[in-house]
Amino acid sequence: MLVEVLKIATDPLVVALVLWVLGNIVVERSGVINLALDGIITIGIAVAFVSTQYFGYFIGLLITIVTSLAFATMFMIFINIMHTYHVLTGLALNILFYGLSALIGLRLQKSPVLATLTLSPVLLALVSILAVLFTWFILYKTSIGIAIRACGFNPRASEHLGIKVWRTRFLASTIGYTLAGIGSYIYATVYRGGWVQYTGRGYGFLAITLAMASTWHPLLSYPISLVFGYLYTSIYALQLLHGIHPEIVNAIPYVASIAIVTIVYSTPLHKKLAAPRALGEVYFKEERAA
Amino acid sequence: MIRPFLQVVQLYKKFGDITALNNVSLAIYPGEILVILGENGSGKSTLAKILYGLYFPDKGYIKINGTPVIFSSPAEAKSKGIFLVSQRPQLIDDMSILENIALFLSTSPSRGLRKKLSEILNYLGMAIDVDKSVHALSYTEKQLVDLVKVLLAQPKLLIVDEAVTYLPRELKHKFLNIVKGFATRGGSVMYITHKVVEAAEIGDRFAVLRRGSVVGVFEKGVDVSTLRQAMFGSEEYLTAITKSPVQRPLHKTPALSVENLVVFDEYGKPAVNDVSLSVRLGDVVAILGIAGNGQKELGEAIVGLRKVAKGKVLLNGDEITHMPASERVRRGLIYVPEDPFREGVAIGLTVAENMKLFSQSRVSKEILETAIRKLEVSPSNPLISVAKLSGGNIQKVSLSRLLLNTPRVVIAYSPTRMLDEKSRVLILRTLQKLAESGSAVLLLSEDIEEAVYISTRIGVIVNGKIVKFFEGPELESYREDIEKVMVHA
Ligand SMILES: Nc1ncnc2c1ncn2[C@@H]1O[C@H](COP(=O)(O)OP(=O)(O)OP(=O)(O)O)[C@@H](O)[C@H]1O
Ligand SMILES: [Mg+2]
After folding, report:
1. Whose C-alpha lies nearest to ligand 1, atom 18?
2. What is the pTM of this model?
């Protein structure tokens, strides 16, 4: 059992997933439905792959983070400055981002493979655990984090309390997409070591679902990500050993997150695990809202 | 001549075709309490919100210490020392009291802050756990937290928009003393209230707004009737309410009775603890208590919005303890909830739509217009979204449910909160009339004044228990006793 857990916790795919989930938690805690995540992850992976081929591992990491932040900022401009609907904006941008990722990967790659970066398993596990603690600390123990969560609960009251809502959301997206960018980088260079069109597509939605299943709480998100990481990495083993269809395994996170959310919200647990109530609310300043 | 701390110069603010502020110029000096008076919808909150950076004026500007400033957000107003405590508590419900305060002060919820906060709450005599989540607080308690947060900051101009008005008396005195002390040390205060008498006592200067214009500025010592004249054009409304002699109720059997009721709060503690009471047709019974003593839970349990743990509720002799709220409404139970914004109206809908919801049937245009006219909802356009109305006018829309139905039993929680004096009298009179024409009225209140005005019986609730009933034709004379029981039971 312990060996299994260690194997999962040090699996680079799981580490990437943990970072994506955490990134999503920070962004959605600020009240923005983060559907553009999937597209930005897909681009991040393509960029990590290509830039590492050109500039090496370290510069590749920086470029991946910066690109993720740039596209996230674009998403945030639509939502916070142009006040567009979160879901529609996210979905529309995803399509654009998928296309862009293909363009970047296909046009700029030197070869379809990349020597994987070997990191010690301990280091990998440490990265994800530190990221979990960091996210938790930021969100629950600092004034920035309280402001981020406040915007997710009630942007209007936050404004009254003297918080600049859009600035806080930009900040949240900067923190969140830095984590997500690192996740994409680990996926591309440590886990995958290669790229074909649309590599990584779908993980964003998985991360969004897992964030919801952990009621947007960073500490809870870790075990939950590990469990689903286990299911994901053992799809083939499960199929071979028990004849479970991969489609069923694939559906589990979605079904489970619905189950968890149902359980949390129909019991007193929801008082402890308050979700960002204003998630997806298009927020105007008071005088324009009325 | 000392220089004003803040000046507003020829401020205009329009919302669509409603003029909220019309050429308003005012100055606030260091060390003074400037009281802003005006009827519901006269522009007081709009002025406050402009000063706090929530709204942007269409024309005109603000000067601080002689220098023009532009605020595009409350964060900027705060950085200049301007702090607003809003008419409606603006807190994050899902967070704890401590976190809310930390948020406002832009710090982390550290041990030091926890200590400071507990100290000030102790000083105010409030035993609230600072880790309690705000959503579990009553409206008045929220208002208190909203006020406490500015006391921990260092304001230069403190704007209080009715937030002190409805606090329990003792607490209110403490706050007013703090506010006065703050002014004596050179701070400026802009104090908005509907209680004219009280305002006259604490104000140094008085500005009266009417339909968005300043119609008068008065110095300390001005008499109350001059202020009322300026606010409403007359003070005849004061005589509209007469303490009606207690009529013997028409019926012996109670229309509403509650037997040994136990109701739990959000934390599983008994909020209502073994309460029994009955209201006959023709009666106005008040349950009076300081906020947070169980009135709210009692009301919600009677109308079916909260689960009853033990005991019974009877309507016209039929048990309704576990009946759905909709069925109770159908049987003639009407509830005026505590928080008009959240519970009293559907805020995004229009006035007309809300009224249709209240009456649960087709409402003719005449009925709508009559209700709007009687309550003097302003602006009087029924097709306007309720979100665009002033605080008092939103309360009026919530109260229109009393006029659109012929209720058997009315349960009203602080129905006159946020109303100007004139509307307040009107609503009290309406409740009185409902009782006279054969309804039963249960008034849940924190305000001893309104309770002694119209009730035939007053029960005082403390910690979820009704500790004493007062009865008789001259409830007025028990005032001090009632007050003592409320505070020191
Ligand atoms: N956001 C808004 N959109 C549209 N109209 C508004 C808005 N805010 C205020 N108004 C209108 O401006 C006028 C002044 O409102 P304001 O809230 O300043 O009144 P007030 O003096 O505070 O009244 P009250 O005593 O009821 O609180 C009202 O007619 C109101 O309907
Ligand atoms: Mg107001």
Report:
1. B43
2. 0.89
